[in-house]
Amino acid sequence: MKILHTLIFCLITLITYSQSDTTETFDYSNFGDADGVKRFCTVKVLNQTPQRIISFGFENNGHFAMPSVRFNDKDLPKTIHIDHVNAIRAQLNIPVISTNKIIWQMGLNYWGSNFTVENPNINAFANSLSTNSLITAGINTTVFKPLNEKNFIIFQASSDLNGLFAGAKDIQSNAITTSATLIYGWKTSEKNMIGTGIARTYRAGQLIHVPVIFWNKTFNEKWGMELLLPARAYLRYNISTSNIFQAGFELEGNQYWANIPGVENAYIQRGEIKPRIMWDKKISGFLWLNLQAGLRYNYRFDLAKTYNAKDDNQNYFSSNLGNPFFFNVTLNFVSP
């Protein structure tokens, strides 16, 4: 809880600071272009979902089994039954610089999962999972740099503290992961942005370097898509500018340091694919509601003996988790 309290304090501080800046920000796209003035492409396509500045949500995963679990080499494999998983998710993105030449944002994120275990006394891992929270908390930055009317660069980076934490005393450097993505792209029209690049990511539960494809496209007034493969992909249907449906998937996860009695060193490698449908609805002003429902499909859930272990011989266990349904309710304060 101390981690959550610290993040909430940081959120309030950043929001207060951002609101104290009374400098007016102009949308230069509303003005004509003077002769000889270099023009730059913008960050969005028409009818794209609004950007979230502040988000706070609750997520619930239903019952599933966690088979073949053991917490050391002498322990026999056992099946842990999870009644449900409740998660609190929060995110903050504050513009630091926002001009027609560059957009720079800084942000905070929190994802805390509490597992309700039906048989917590079956072994030390089940007990640790039941009594502690699986937490990701970190800081991130995003830079959008237009080069001209057609070309742009996107850079994203994050540093996260990840662990099965009982309290602040468990925090250590082994729990830190860093991720980054670099994209070079083309904006061919106000309805189409496409790019490609490379990412360093832990979304699959292990550190990997993968090529990425970025593509935001609006086909017409109703239909569009928003892709950042392999991380996520969504087909969008705009009932109106303030009422949007999406269907697609997202790959989520990270590597977590785990403090388990009787184990010198352990890392939970968690990766999950979430096919889902989403509904974004404007409530009032810049306040939006987001509802999600879908399947939490297990991609990886390993207890590794070493950092970024990729061999089964380096794992205490590799569990084929059940795949429960989930729902998510989130309130968002969005950008104009």
Walk me through what this model shows.
The structure is a single chain. This protein has a 17-stranded mixed beta sheet that branches. It is mainly β and 336 residues long. It is 8% helix and 59% strand. The protein is globular and about 70 Å long. A hairpin with a 2-residue loop joins strand 11 and strand 12 (243-258). The protein has one domain. The longest helix has 19 residues, at 2-20.
Please describe the topology of this protein.
Blueprint: H1 2-20, E1 52-61, E2 64-69, E3 78-98, E4 103-117, H2 124-131, E5 133-146, E6 151-165, E7 176-189, E8 192-201, E9 208-218, E10 223-229, E11 232-240, E12 243-258, E13 267-284, E14 287-295, E15 297-304, E16 315-318, E17 325-334
Parallel strand pairs: 6-12
Antiparallel strand pairs: 1-3, 1-17, 2-3, 3-4, 4-5, 5-6, 6-7, 7-8, 8-9, 9-10, 10-11, 11-12, 12-13, 13-14, 13-15, 14-17, 15-16
Q: Overall 3D geometry?
A: globular
Rounded average pLDDT: 88
Q: How many domains make up the coordinates?
A: 1
Q: Low-confidence runs (pLDDT<50, min 5 residues)?
A: 1-34
What is the number of helices? Answer: 2
Report the count of strand segments: 17
Give the C-alpha Rg.
Answer: 21 Å
- Structural class call reads mainly beta
Strand fraction equals: over 45%
Order of helices and strands: HEEEEHEEEEEEEEEEEEE
What is the CA–CA distance across the termini? 33 Å
